[in-house]
Amino acid sequence: MTFQTRLLPDSPDVVAPDGSDVRILLQLGGGSMAHFELAAGQVSRAVAHRTVDEIWYVLHGRGQMWRRPAQREEQAQREQTVSLSPGTCVSIPAGTHFQFRAPPPCPKLPPCPRPAARRSRLRREADVLRPLLSPPS
């Protein structure tokens, strides 16, 4: 037996059949570990693995995964779409049809005014409005 250690590669090793970028980490006779990434705003192709069970753990980003069992009698009962966020772990048993998506990035918004600046602006607006709200003399 040989011990292996590897850092996450900077660039993908391959593109998976579903369209996600794959960085291969380690492989042993009984299993392997890889890092998958889907760019923001992208939707993978629906696929099913005939012989591979998978467990996914989400490191960062958000998205959704659709899963449906292979057996038709179970499809209506167990078909589901789940939210993905950091810390989510999902199983994909062999034969499961699945697809996932990453939402588009959020638009950049201007920063909110600091509370002191906002209070100052509101005081100025109140000073402008005060003569209009004062009763006529």
Structure in words:
With about 140 residues, the chain is an alpha+beta fold. It has a single domain, classed as Jelly Rolls, CATH 2.60.120.10. Helices cover about 20% and strands about 30% of the residues. It is built from two helices and nine strands. Strand 1 and strand 2 (about 20-30) form a beta hairpin. The longest helix is centred in the C-terminal third of the chain and has 19 residues, at about 115-135. The chain starts with 13 loop residues before the first strand and ends with a helix. Mean pLDDT is about 80; it is low at about 125-135.
State the main characteristics.
137 residues, alpha+beta, Jelly Rolls, 4-stranded antiparallel sheet, 3-stranded antiparallel sheet, 31% strand, disordered C terminus
Number of strands: 9
CATH superfamily: Jelly Rolls
Gap between N and C termini: 96 Å
Helix/strand/pairing category = alpha+beta
Mean pLDDT: 82
Q: Can you summarize the main beta sheet?
A: 4 strands, antiparallel
What's the helical proportion of residues? 10-25%
Spatial shape = globular
Q: Could you give the order of strands across the largest sheet?
A: 4-9-6-7
Count of all domains = 1
Radius of gyration: 26 Å
Low-confidence stretches: 126-137
- The number of helical runs is 2
Compact overview of the structure:
The chain is of the alpha+beta class. It has helices at residues 72-78, 115-133; strands at residues 14-15, 21-28, 31-37, 47-48, 54-57, 63-68, 80-84, 89-92, 97-101.
Give the topology.
Layout: E1 14-15, E2 21-28, E3 31-37, E4 47-48, E5 54-57, E6 63-68, H1 72-78, E7 80-84, E8 89-92, E9 97-101, H2 115-133
Antiparallel strand pairs: 1-2, 2-3, 4-9, 5-8, 6-7, 6-9
